Amino acid sequence: MSDGVFAVAITLLILDVRPPAVSAIRTEQDLWRALVSLAPRLVVFLMSFVTLDIFWVGQQTQLNHVAESNRHLTWIHLAFLFAVSLMPFSTSFLAEFIGYRIAVVEYWANILLLGVVLYGSWGYAVRARLVEEAVPPEVPAAICRRIVIAQSLYAVGVLLCLVSTYWSIGFIVLLQLYYAVAPRFRHRA
Predict the structure, then answer these.
(1) Is 187 domain-assigned?
(2) Is 188 a member of any domain?
(3) Number of structural domains, the chain?
(4) Stretch among 22-31, 122-131, 136-145, 178-187 having the lowest mean pLDDT
(5) Which structural domain range is residue 13 located in?
């Protein structure tokens, strides 16, 4: 179910990026201007695509270390999928109102909800002893630390909207690119 929710959410992201109306295009220059005007929407789409990718990888990392599940952990992951399903709306809202701080804050609130629930699911799995016994003791702490640091940096990113929403979005994009390519902790399992 998790992969399906992520796949649908990612697919819905692009549906809000529409080509320009044919009736508005009369010349190559008109088409070029229309394409350039789509750039903010494309940046927000890319940002959300990477956001969902990062959280999918985070959830998969956690699930790869879970030996068994129970009803509580399942409901926590369903809450996480709820937050995932909100991302297309948050993306559309930000793309439509990209110059407004409230739109950036709403987008960040969606990222915060994803991070809090992902952190909570891991914390619960560890406390309920649902994590594989072979997982080295440094892995649970590393997973928690990674989530807390990322969420703290996202908070810095949203604070940048006090200067400019574009600075805020640029910072978040750079942060996501870092998390997409940053080295991961390694262990022998």
Answers:
(1) no
(2) no
(3) 1
(4) 178-187
(5) 2-181
Tell me if 166 is assigned to some domain.
Answer: yes
State the pLDDT at residue 74.
95
Nearest CA to 47 out of 160, 177, 155, 185 is that of 177
Tokens for 168?
A: 């805020």
Residue 186 lies inside a defined structural domain of this protein: no
How far, in Å, CA of 43 to CA of 63, rounded?
30
pLDDT of 185 above 60: no
Please write the tens of the pLDDT for every residue from 14-25: 888 888 788 888
Dihedral of the alpha carbons of 14, 19, 21, 27, in degrees to the nearest 10: 170
3-state secondary structure of 66: strand
What sign has the CA pseudo-torsion 181, 187, 188, 189?
A: negative
pLDDT computed for residue 183 by the predictor:
63
Whether 171 and 155 have beta carbons less than 8 Å apart is answered as: no
Task: Tell me the two tokens of residue 7.
Answer: 């796949």
